[in-house]
Amino acid sequence: MRCLALTTALAAVAHAGAVAQSSPQPAVVPVFSSNYGSNASEHRRFGRELGRAFAAMISERHATDWEMNAYLMPFVATTAGKAVYEEFLAVNQAKYPLYMEELRGLSEGTCSAPDDKEAELCVPFANVFVLNSREGISEWAPDTRSKAAVARSGSRIDHCSDYM
Hints:
- It is a single chain.
- This protein is mostly helical.
- The chain has one domain (2-17, 37-153).
- The protein has ten helices and no strands.
C-alpha cells in the first residue's frame, strides 16, 4: 500500500522536475526510513511525513493541474458529482482503509509543512482523494474535456502513469 501512497508525491516530483528542467539545480528527494508499523495510525503518520516533505511540490501539482481545477473539482461540487465522490470515498474506505489513512495523512502533512507559507501549501483531503481517483471519477462526469481546451490552457492532462 505504501507504493500507492507515493503516487501523488512521485507525480508531484516528476511534474516539478519537468517544469524545472531548465533550472541548473537538481531536485532534492527526501529519504524515508521503513520504520513504520502496519496499523492505521502508522499509515497516517507515513502519509503525514510524506506530505510534509513534499508539500510544496504537491501543492504546486494541485494548483497547476488543469483537469483537476477545470473539470474534476467543479464536477465534484455538483449534486451528481458529490454523490459520485461520496460513493468512491465509501468504497475505498471499506476496501483500502490503510491507504485512505495515508491519503489523509498526506493532506495533513501538506498543511503542517515547515514553511512560512504553510496555509498556501495546504491541499485539502478532497483534492488529494479526487486526484488519486481521477480515472474513476472522470468516468461519471460529463465529458467536458477537450484536447483543444487543454492546448489553449498551455497545460496538459497527465496522470501518474505518464511518469512511470
